[in-house]
Amino acid sequence: MKQPNITMFVKELSVRISREVKVGSIHIIITTVLCLSMALFVVILAMFINDHIRNLKTEDFYFPQPNTFLPHSPSPSHSYILCNSSSSSTSHLPQNSTTIGIALAMEIWHSMSDEELMWRASMVSRIAEIPFKWTPKVAFMFLSRGPLPLAPLWERFFKGHEGFYSIYLHAPPGFTKEPPESSVFFHRRIPSKPVEWGRASMIDAERRLIGNALLDFSNERFVLLSETCIPLFNFTTIYNYLINSNHSFTDSFDDPGHVGRGRYNKRMWPTISLSEWRKGSQWFEVHRNLAIDIVSDKIYYPVFKNHCKPPCYMDEHYMATLVNKLQPERNSNRSLTWVDWSKGGSHPSKFVRKDVTQVFLDQIRHGFNCTYNGVTTSICFLFARKFHPSTLQPLLSMASS
């Protein structure tokens, strides 16, 4: 009797084991399928997120320049601004992974249209207080017809002051020559378009420079320069002069002659009246609030574009009239860039090697009187033009003094 019972027990056990193995195999297969499905889902999700982030980086956000986040240096006194001409030590940006990432991102310029650029540049933070330490910067905006022959002079001017300035270069679209990586002008060209002297395209280029510079929120002052401009003082003096000024420096005056009021077009009325019409130098310096007003202008710019054509030159009238309309009380009504119009004609005098002497430069630096923050000073010009490439060597030899 025991043998059949044992045989039945073995058979029942075999059946039960086979059933368990089958069930276990099914569980293993189901688990494997679920794991593979989850892994595939994670991979697809990661690819989607990565692609979305890449699009945001290249289209929707602007990366500030690598020298944006710096500790704020104490503001000097007025006497220091006007009298001290020695270089001071400046802070440098730490070379960490974040800095490198921002620097790499800055190498890819945006592909925005002018309209989109102006829209984004006109945005203002609704919280006035910045929630971290920062250093206000001066945006040096070069409107150039091509190469920068005086670049070595500017290289010496900027050396040692990283974090206190930004550089933007608007050159003809066909000009693609890039300076060496060690240059402060390396990868500083903005998306540009052709520029024709005296036409609306000149103002478009200026607004394009301002718009790009406004995307970096740490830029507080905006200076327009050309490839023929030189600095008349060292960086410390110019930086302090601009950052501590209560006014913008845009030449704006009422000229009753044929090259002033004589260029006014009656079709501009009533948006712009003859009494509001102004003339001035193209080379301006403005604070951030005024820069935002310039790129935001949708009222006066179309009127100028339609009705100010040669012999009416927009670069001599648009900015001068606009500033007089928008913020006359915050403008000094003078330019910081010295030019010589004594010989007459449509263009100022150009200076060559033999013209550059210490006496000549000192006359520009201290030969005038003007008002700065309500105080009379002899420092009225910080820059000068038009200097021929042949002046580079004598200027470099005198730069240290």
Map the helices and strands.
Layout: H1 2-60, H2 78-83, H3 97-106, H4 114-121, E1 137-143, H5 151-158, E2 165-170, H6 200-214, E3 219-226, E4 230-231, H7 235-243, E5 285-287, H8 288-296, H9 300-307, H10 314-326, E6 337-338, H11 358-366, E7 370-372, E8 375-377, E9 383-384, H12 392-399
Parallel strand pairs: 1-2, 1-3, 6-9
Antiparallel strand pairs: 3-5, 4-9, 7-8
Keywords: Glycoprotein, Glycosyltransferase, Membrane, Transferase, Transmembrane, Transmembrane helix
Organism: Quillaja saponaria
GO molecular function: glycosyltransferase activity
Describe what you observe in this structure.
Keywords: Glycoprotein, Glycosyltransferase, Membrane, Transferase, Transmembrane, Transmembrane helix. It comes from Quillaja saponaria (Soap bark tree). This is Core-2/I-branching beta-1,6-N-acetylglucosaminyltransferase family protein. This protein has 401 residues and is an alpha/beta fold. It has helices spanning 2-60, 78-83, 97-106, 114-121, 151-158, 200-214, 235-243, 288-296, 300-307, 314-326, 358-366, 392-399; strands spanning 137-143, 165-170, 219-226, 230-231, 285-287, 337-338, 370-372, 375-377, 383-384. The termini are far apart. Helices cover 40% and strands 9% of the residues. The relative contact order is 0.11. It contains 12 helices and 9 strands. Helix 4 crosses helix 6 (200-214) and helix 6 (200-214) packs across helix 8 (288-296). Residues 53-108 have low confidence and may be disordered. The strands form 3 sheets. A 4-stranded mixed sheet has the order 2-1-3-5. Strands 4-9-6 form a 3-stranded mixed sheet. Strands 7-8 form a two-stranded antiparallel sheet. Strand 1 (137-143), helix 5 (151-158) and strand 2 form a beta-alpha-beta unit.
